[in-house]
Design a protein that fits this description.
D-Maltodextrin-Binding Protein, domain 2; 10 strands; 339 residues; three-stranded antiparallel beta sheet; alpha/beta
């Protein structure tokens, strides 16, 4: 296991190497938002631990949040420089006000990789909720209104052909609260990334009844975003951040998705991630959960504009964001490849 002291030493060693190579005297300090319950934030952790940000002359602090919306607010205020989470109603509203921009793609649903699962509580399953079509009239856990969980619930309803309002949404603010509510049967259903889903189903506390890939094609699950001020006034900083992050994404894909790294190298990656993800558990317990959560990261932080636009239109249809929001206000497509 890599201790926090060793993690810091690795980071400082990488930083020192990069500074000597570039001749730089001081790195730019940036804060990056992460959600410690989600392995989708691993690329930032890997990039910091392996010195990829340091190579770009960046000194990084990782700042923890429990949901996407508070992170977006922190980026708009300047307390955090970059984030990598699902698009939320708060993020879109801040984009409409001209203070935040999506600048890249991160977690991506792809046909070749196991993706997000639709789960029901053991009690709901025993009551006959055995397919997503049975979710009409049932409760569905979300963090906040306008979260990715809210979006997924409605996309299930749309494809199954029943009114969106027939799913009762239960806003619980934080992912751990949703997990606890599903375990106890206080909510009937949820949709979540495979690492959390597998832990719940393995323990018999929930049952998988479907996958999100069957309901949302090419879903850009998470995006990379920053303040509009950074995007417009510090383009070089943004490019350097994305360069470091992209190397972290490449390592994540190689170690845990494509599995082209050796087992020894993959184990080192998992240990780095464990410093922040499932850090309250022993490494031997966290290791399989971290590996189970691996979904593909968009190479080079490429961004699916089609998926982002679908999400934006859903937000508008639910009157969760102003009608005045446009893709141009939400996305700065100048930093990465788009599709």
């Amino acid at each position: 296991m890599i201790s926090r002291r060793t993690f810091a030493a690795l980071f400082l060693a990488g930083a020192g190497t990069a500074l000597m190579a570039t001749g730089a005297t001081a790195a730019d300090k940036i804060n990056i938002g992460i959600i410690p319950s989600l392995t989708s934030h691993a690329p930032s952790i890997i990039a910091a631990a392996k010195g990829y940000f340091a190579e770009q002359d960046l000194e990084v602090e990782l700042v923890s949040f429990q949901a996407a919306q508070p992170m977006a607010v922190a980026i708009a205020s300047g307390d955090v420089d970059f984030g990598m989470t699902a698009i939320s109603g708060g993020l879109i509203s801040l984009a409409d006000k001209g203070v935040i921009k999506v600048i890249g793609g991160a977690l991506q649903e792809t046909p070749d990789v196991e993706g997000q699962k639709i789960l029901v509580s053991k009690a709901a399953y025993e009551q006959g909720v055995t397919t997503p079509a049975d979710l009409a009239g049932r409760s569905f856990g979300i963090t906040t209104a306008g979260s990715s969980f809210h979006y997924m619930a409605h996309k299930i309803a749309d494809k199954e052909g029943f009114p969106r309002e027939e799913i009762t949404l239960r806003p619980l603010q934080q992912v751990p609260a949703v997990i606890a509510s599903l375990k106890s049967g206080q909510i009937d259903a949820w949709a979540i990334v495979p690492n959390i889903a597998s832990g719940l189903t393995a323990g018999g506390e929930a049952v998988e009844i479907g996958t999100i890939a069957d309901y949302i094609e090419g879903y850009q699950v998470t995006t990379v975003f920053t303040s509009t001020a950074n995007a417009e006034e510090k383009a070089d900083l943004v490019k350097r951040f994305l360069a470091g992050l992209s190397k972290g994404m490449d390592d994540y894909n190689a170690a845990l998705v494509d599995k082209t790294m050796s087992e020894e190298e993959a184990a080192e990656i998992v240990a780095m991630i464990h410093e922040y993800i499932y850090a309250d558990q022993p490494l031997e317990t966290a290791d399989p959960r971290i590996r189970a959560g691996a979904m593909r990261m968009s190479p080079g932080a490429a961004l699916s504009l089609k998926s982002v636009e679908d999400q934006l239109e859903w937000f508008k249809s639910e009157k969760l964001v102003p009608e005045t929001v446009t893709m141009e206000k939400l996305v700065d497509a100048s930093f990465v490849e788009t599709f």
